[in-house]
Amino acid sequence: MAGLNPEKLFVDYRSGVTATSPVIPRRYTLTHSDETGDLFLTIAPEYAYDKITALRDEALAEWRIMDDRFILYVYLYVNGGLDKGTSARRNYIFRRELPLVLQSIRYGDRPFFAMHPELDQAPVIVYFDSTHPEYRRLENWGTPANYSLFRKTSKITS
């Protein structure tokens, strides 16, 4: 997986949200162009269903409260119909590209994270949706801070 190229990310804030508020409802719809490699992040109170195609290769995410704390909940449609091989391929691709998805959300909504720095430490919970039990999973993928392009790294000196 290649890292995020910020020049290929286009962000659209829709009516009902600003660059810094609200936290809830705040939903992300990430789509892409296979031809150009461009990524399109829509931030709105509702998912951008008008951007979702029959391929169902978008990533959906939203802020939720779980156990009295904020989480970033990500939904990925792995199913691929009744064909288990298609589901296996889609699962592989979603897992390979998920860090790019999370980088896109974190970078694309950076004014929001600057205004709400505590959300950088919220758990990222990912639901892989499939009719096949081996691909249907709910997993913790760290925190938004793990996907910041501006992460501070510690330098070890001897």
UniProtKB/TrEMBL annotation:
Domain Staygreen protein: 4-147
Keywords, sorted A to Z: Transit peptide
Taxonomic superkingdom: Bacteria
Pfam families (alphabetical): Staygreen
Protein name: Staygreen protein domain-containing protein
Species of the source: Heliobacterium mobile (Heliobacillus mobilis)
